[in-house]
């Protein structure tokens, strides 16, 4: 089964980031790289990426044939996706154990969600 491990950013995590020294920030980034390498070595990792800042995002809507693209940041959103790991695991318990190793989990929520298995409807 595939699981998406979502690394979230919010005012609390941003405030925590501001307290870190440059050395601590570098160690934090290196911890993400080390986790990525470990998940590659164990065969769990499908892909992993950090996302650009929300200020570079666009929100798209289509209504009555008209496409509207709105620039970020989106004031009504206090939490956003900062990055993700897509992993292949035997079950949710294994995915949760991997998510617990994400460096952000030490000070912020990390969400795990099963990826919809399309074979259920394609069957």
**Mean pLDDT figure:** 91
Counting DSSP H or I runs of 4 or more residues, the number of helices is 4
Question: What is the CA-atom radius of gyration, in angstroms?
Answer: 17 Å
Distance separating the two termini? 16 Å
Order of helices and strands: EHHEEEEHEH
Q: What is the topology, as strand order, of the major beta sheet?
A: 2-5-1-6
Give the helix/strand class: alpha+beta
Envelope shape: flat
- Note the main sheet: 4 strands, antiparallel
Overview features:
single chain; alpha+beta; 4-stranded antiparallel sheet; 123 residues; two-stranded antiparallel sheet
Topology of helices and strands:
Layout: E1 2-9, H1 11-19, H2 22-42, E2 45-50, E3 58-63, E4 66-71, E5 80-88, H3 92-99, E6 110-114, H4 119-122
Antiparallel strand pairs: 1-5, 1-6, 2-5, 3-4
Question: Quick summary of this structure?
Answer:
34% of the residues lie in helices and 33% in strands.
Characterization of this structure:
There is one protein chain. This protein is α+β, with helices and mostly antiparallel strands and 123 residues long. Helices cover 34% and strands 33% of the residues. The protein contains 4 helices and 6 strands. The chain has a 4-stranded antiparallel β-sheet. The protein has a two-stranded antiparallel ribbon with strand order 3-4. A hairpin with a 2-residue loop joins strand 3 (58-63) and strand 4. The longest helix is centred in the first third of the chain and has 21 residues, at 22-42. The two termini are 16 Å apart. The mean pLDDT is 91.
């Amino acid at each position: 089964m595939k699981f998406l491990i979502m690394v979230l950013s919010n005012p609390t995590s941003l405030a925590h980031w501001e307290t870190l020294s440059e050395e601590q920030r570098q160690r934090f980034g290196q911890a993400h790289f080390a986790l990525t390498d470990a998940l590659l070595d164990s065969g769990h990792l499908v892909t992993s990426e950090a996302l650009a800042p929300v200020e570079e995002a666009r929100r798209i809507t289509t209504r009555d044939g008209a496409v509207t693209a709105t620039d970020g940041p989106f004031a009504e959103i206090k939490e956003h996706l900062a990055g993700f790991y897509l992993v292949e695991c035997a079950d949710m318990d294994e995915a949760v154990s991997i998510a617990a190793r994400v460096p952000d989990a030490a000070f912020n929520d990390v969400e795990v969600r099963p990826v919809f298995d399309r074979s259920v409807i394609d069957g």
